[in-house]
Design goal:
By secondary structure, the chain is an all-alpha fold. Among the domains are: 59 residues; 44 residues. It has seven helices and no strands. The longest helix is centred in the middle third of the chain and has 57 residues. The model has no long low-confidence stretch (mean pLDDT 78).
Length: 170
């Protein structure tokens, strides 16, 4: 009794599948007789050959499971490596920040930011937004959108002020 190779096993299983699924009686009979010939060539019955084929499929499935497990392990290793790399990258970045602070870089940035904030601070004697919008509407040809950006009012408030100026309600 010789063991069949994988091609023979595949051919045998295809013939059995054809014998089970075919609509035509002649095709089923031919497929079944070809499967019997393959089995007798190897000194087995169809049932024995089929069991041997299923055992070898299980073996190949196990190797597939091993490959799958190996892929999962490789993925886990890569994931761990990436997490580890990101940890060391964060650590390197933090050392660089601490080094920059030690050189006084952080203080220079804070000084520049504070001078910028001081220059942008609003003085206490600034006009109220409504009065400012009224003056801009009377004395300039700025659009409503530009006035809203300058005063901080919304477009409806600026248009309302313009309408009130026209009717001299203000």
């Amino acid at each position: 009794m010789s063991s069949p190779n994988s091609e023979t096993q595949k051919r045998f299983s295809n013939l059995l599948e054809l014998a089970k699924r075919s609509k035509f009686k002649g095709e089923r009979n031919n497929a079944l007789s070809a499967a019997k010939r393959i089995a007798t060539k190897h000194g087995m019955t169809i049932e024995e050959f089929e069991k041997d084929s299923s055992n070898s499929k299980n073996k190949t499935n196990r190797s597939w499971a091993n490959k799958s497990r190996q892929k999962k392990e490789n993925f886990a290793n890569e994931l761990f490596k990436n997490i580890n790399d990101s940890y060391y990258e964060k650590e390197r970045w933090q050392r660089a920040v601490n080094s920059a602070k030690a050189r006084g870089l952080d203080e220079n940035i804070r000084k520049r930011e504070s001078t910028l904030e001081k220059s942008l601070k609003i003085s206490k004697n600034k006009r109220p937004a409504g009065k400012h919008a009224e003056v801009l509407l009377r004395e300039t040809s700025l659009s409503f959108k530009e006035i809203t950006e300058i005063t901080g009012l919304n477009i409806y408030q600026v248009v309302g002020i313009r309408l009130k100026i026209r009717t001299d309600l203000i």
